[in-house]
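quick one
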Amino acid sequence: MRAHRPALGRPRASGLTSPRRGAQEAAMDFEPAYTAEQEEFRSEVRAWLGQHVPDVPHLERDTPENYQRFRQLHRELGARGWLWPTAPVEYGGGGLSVDHMIVVAEELDRYDLPLPPIYDSGGRLGGASVLIWGTEEQKARMMPRIIKGEVVTWQLLTGPEAGSDLAGTTTDAVRDGDEYVINGEKLYIGGSHDVDYLWTIVRTDRDGERHKNLSWFMIPADLPGITIKPMELLGDGAEGVGHSWKNTIYFEDVRVSADDLVGGENNGWQVATTHLELEHGSGGRIGRNRWFEEALQLSLTMKREGKPLIEHDDVRSRMVDLFVRTEVNRLFELRNFWMNRTGTKMTYEGPQSSYFRKIGGLEISQAIMDMVGPYALTNDPEFDPEPWSAGVLHAARYPGAPPRRHHRYPEGDHGAPYRHRARPGGASGGDTPVAPPRRHPGIANVEDDAMDLSLNELQQMLKHSVDDFLARSATRDAILEAETSAAGYSPEMWKIAAEIGWLGMVTPEQYGGTGGSLTDAAVVFEGLGRGPVPGPFFSSGVLSPLIITEAGNEEQRQRYLPSLASGQTVCALAMTEPEWGWGADSVQMQAKPSADGGYVVSGVKVFAFDALAADHLIVPARADGQLVLLMVDTSNVGVEVRRMTGFLTSECVVRLTDVKVPAGDVLEGGQLALERAFLRATPILCAQMVGGAQAVYEMSVEYSRRRRQFSQPIGRFQHVQNHIVQLVNYVDGARWTTFEALWKLDEARPNAEISVHLAKVCASEGYVQATNYAHEVHAGIGVMREYGLTQYTRASRSLYHALGDPQWHRRRLGKLLPQTADEAIPA
Ligand SMILES: Cc1cc2nc3c(=O)[nH]c(=O)nc-3n(C[C@H](O)[C@H](O)[C@H](O)COP(=O)(O)OP(=O)(O)OC[C@H]3O[C@@H](n4cnc5c(N)ncnc54)[C@H](O)[C@@H]3O)c2cc1C
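structure w/ flavin-adenine dinucleotide:
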């Protein structure tokens, strides 16, 4: 049995029916007080749960066995009247007071279990509609089985055409004697395990007036003609970010008894309104601030750079953000719970807390990514101290919210930096950029030396060639297939990239590369990010050659660079250690000098991108306090590499046990060489992220034009326009900071380092935010893997931390920007 974690100084639930003070003293009391009888009831519940809560690791681990054990607990609670404690006894409930219900919920909460302990939409939502709209016969037949937990029910509302516009359903039911014959399809339904009843809204009068042509049924799930097909969605069990999957449910000539029609024919909209009200947040909830408690707990036990997380200033500041956000959320829910249970009239409160929770989920997940770094994304049993990843994409999995803000919708195509600007003399430029005379290898200057942010001729050619590659070889289907293959990428795509020369773009010509500028390489990598093309392209085609060029001696450059450029050798960096952090200071792995001038090295590296694909790893380690860079052949004895699991792309664990690295495989440069390489590599990675964010933007605009709800394209709703405006702001912020950093490096301008850190902050945060807003625009379809948005969502989270997360780059910026008034004011 899991140990109970103590509550951490939280204010507790509301005093609903038993205030401690006299009514004349104070109207508000946020803490419940219990009578002696209720405390006795608590002892009874606690003792019973102690005997009956199954001894399993965590409900998040969604195995069939876990599910069945919790379903059994669900039934046993139902038998005692504790599953829906306040429901009337005649319908199978406990007939207890709200305070008793709070006691049961609090006691289950000690085991991190909700009430009810498994997903069942019947008791709270569908059952409420039956109670209000059903006949006595229907209530007596349907309710006790639901309230006692004997059956599990799913809600079937969304269809391909009917999402936000639920009344637009195209699932039809036609009366035939004592039955209705149903045909149609419902999406995103239910969970991973068994179901007994389906409640749904269907069209019973195709030509009838809107909202008056619908009917509501409670249908046995095993009727002939019903097919349940699992959907592949973002965050299902395989990625470790969720704890159930969803289904498509097909109805083919399903004959349903007319006795199962609730509320009468063509009255379905009224019946649905009852549960929609409840679903949209008006029920409220009470309970502790689990998010904050668990974050605090983790900050005490987990370390970064040798110190518990809580001792880092930036983590504490994110904890405060988290606290503020989650406490407001808790109080909204608490207020709604109180209003609901005391019959206080509600107007906006339900949707308000629902919206606040969903949007807050994104902020919370970002705060957690900043606090616990890449650990937020993994469910790898070796490294996952808590199923953190469950919350990270919470809001992306439940998108959609009411309209609220006012912004302008960008017209037409969104301008990439290569779009031709109006030229002096009135030439408009149009869609075909005219290359200015080339003066520098980076972004070109026009004749009069005025600023020009368009691409030069070579860069335009590179852009066309990578566009062509995406259209012909790296299509969406090919990318999906490559991603799910054992290797995680396509050898054919790799071969093409090598042949075109994309793996040698930053490598000088004398070592087999094309010796282009960083901006040239960025143009190609932006294209690969648009795919997003999976594979070790950046690790082996940019990062490793830059490190070897900076840190290797002549012999080492000759040995490695040509074969990296030709794609024959694949190389990756394995730097991050279990106490993560970024930068040379966080490297603690010890390398022991050996007699031949080389080293023997042991230890673990984590979140090493592309290590499984690599035949060589660059391993930074420490010898006599100094950073040494070791080239480790992955076929050597003592090298073990495996993929990490979770919401990741290609991150691996590398375990080294007494691995011998000969003197010739020690790169001569140390920390400074590594940092020079990182400085040059980082904006190319940012360009890759910009490419992903740009693709996500284009998908969203296109979808907002195509998808219709309420008889119009969703792009007409200001709410959706607002998402797209936010999205474009993030894409542009990432794009222009990235390309300025590249330009400064290519042109050897001062303050390039500041620009690189700025670019990584904007690219990391911008890509994540772009995908968040894209999910808002797409709602349900966005989480279907085959649609293609989820690949960007995953890449955005994964790359967020690569080469340092935004918090790390912010700290560096803090050191580089003026520290004092004297420094800030020019002499
Ligand atoms: C993880 C998950 C679980 C789900 N579980 C269930 C389930 O158990 N049962 C079930 O029936 N359904 C379920 N759904 C479906 C969910 O209810 C729908 O996704 C939701 O109703 C939105 O519909 P849609 O996806 O078709 O988006 P759309 O309605 O197409 O919306 C797309 C975008 O347009 C916006 N929009 C639409 N209309 C308006 C408007 N009038 N004004 C302003 N903006 C508007 C939306 O806010 C959104 O941004 C689930 C979905 C997900 C993602």
